[in-house]
Records
---
Amino acid sequence: EDENIYIADKHSGVSCEALCSELCSRGEFYAVHRLHRNTEGLTVFAKNRAAEEELLSAFKNRSVKKRYLALCKNNFKRPNAVLEAYSEKDGQASEVKIYGTPRRGAVKIITEYKILENRGELALVEVTLHTGRTHQIRAHMSHIGCPVLGDGKYGDGLLNKKYNAGRQRLLAKYLQFEFDGALDYLNGRIFESKKEL
């Protein structure tokens, strides 16, 4: 935390809205990078309007590098890959569908993964987002047959039950900024969640 930015290491089960509400009791806070309630790890808040504008621009322009850790079903055919697919959001069902080929109404997504550790039928995977779409990691991993453990929407119900995983094992582990403005003093710094999977 400094005068412009607050990075929280959020627990799974806590909504960013609730966290922002709690922070606002201390002063001005604006959520600029939200995580799903059941995803844990680093989430970002601005502490003034100028910082909010610069942070929102940085996330929109993809000048924030985000890496996640996920525990996935170990159906991986390769130890690492850069995956391309097409994502279509269904707002009514609050989920996305992933397609292997272009489709009207679907946007291109790029997800990179690297297996860090094989754990039998599970694998600890580092995931880098090259695009940032709704549920991208969870839906894309499921699309290739390697769903995130504990994912109730895109996951493997039997595997979740076997490991008693009621929440997705997905962690926003690292953040690195590349600003071109007042927040450029943060450039090159890597922020790391203390949580592990």
Note: The chain has four helices and ten strands.
---
Amino acid sequence: MKKYLLRRKAQLEKRLKQLKELLEKGSETRSMEEVQAEVDELTADLDAVNEALAELDETDDNNGNGAGEGEEDDENEDDEEQDEGEGEKRSILTQEQRAGLTNVINQSLSSRVQVKTNEMKTRNAFCRYLVGQISESEARAMGVQTHGGNVLVPESLAKEIIAYAQEENLLRKYGKVVQTKGTQGFPILIKKAKANRVKTERALNQPIPETDIEFDEYYLNPTETDALVLVTKKLLAMSEMNVERIVVDELKKAYVREEAEFFFNSADNPGALIRKAVAFTPTATDIYDKFVQLKNSLPTSMLKNARWMINRAALTAIETIKTADGFPLLRPDIGLEGGFGYRLLGFPVDVTDFVDAGTPNIQRLYFGDFSTFYIQDVIGTMEVTKLIEKYADTNHVGFKIWHLNDGQLVYGPFEPSVFKLELNA
């Protein structure tokens, strides 16, 4: 299998190099669309082959010895085709078009397999260094960045942690994530202006009147999110277990808990969901009518992406409620492929314990458009600190994960995007 993939890779790369030479010489006589279509097809095939090769265990270097076998005839045929096309005909492509296609080919010929292999080596070295299996100098030699006892989480692993956080933290799942290189706050401008309409053409002495604009300006403020995991030295010494995987998994869980609590319930976060969502006070006494009033209080422009986010106490209270025609108010969402869920008054329902805010007995519901929750992640700031001496008297080793980010619910003064209802508050 590997021998075939290597042979196929060599054929694709050779054809791309031939196209590159034709473009550089100005001898390609086909149209821009035809050349672009072939380059796209060759690039897609080469990417697929490279991904397949990256997944194979490269344990036997001799597997690739036959990569060039059986290609001599193809090479001669390609050379003949190239000679036939290199007559007096000149390229109909402009210099800019040829340069653009050449850049695409150069990118396709770069070794993506080597890049992925290096990422895996750095990731493994990071995990092994954390659990004390290799020294700091060995970790540095494999691409791990360390400074002052802190270890910068490799980019591939940082993306994995954030992806796990997206699965568990619903605000990260439905909100808008903005990645920045610096720690400066990300500005969000919310405004609503009044337009003007005139029935006749404006005269010279009839200028457009000034429009009143009301707006709120928000700046996200990236702050520290950190979490601590303790692991016994006995566990670190057990070589028959994949200790590195256990430590990384626990770090992911601890980070998600801390981040989600900051987004949902933190008193230090002015844009936390529990603080920024508009408290809804229904006038109805029937619980069904309360839900209807809440749903219809949301601005029409927000209803398109609206959904419910509730805790288990609210789920328990709603599951027994029936509509006037005897059907359950909370209905299964059969539109979820490969999963399960609910719909309440026609809108999707998500259940999460982070809505509890430390009071699981309160039946709390949020309803609105959660895409107005903005999250700023500062690229390259996720670090792990290994704490040995601090917990030495209990035979533990501490791992502290640290990251700079911020998350706030943002909406304009005219269109509140999320409402909060507490049924038994």
Note: The radius of gyration is 30 Å.
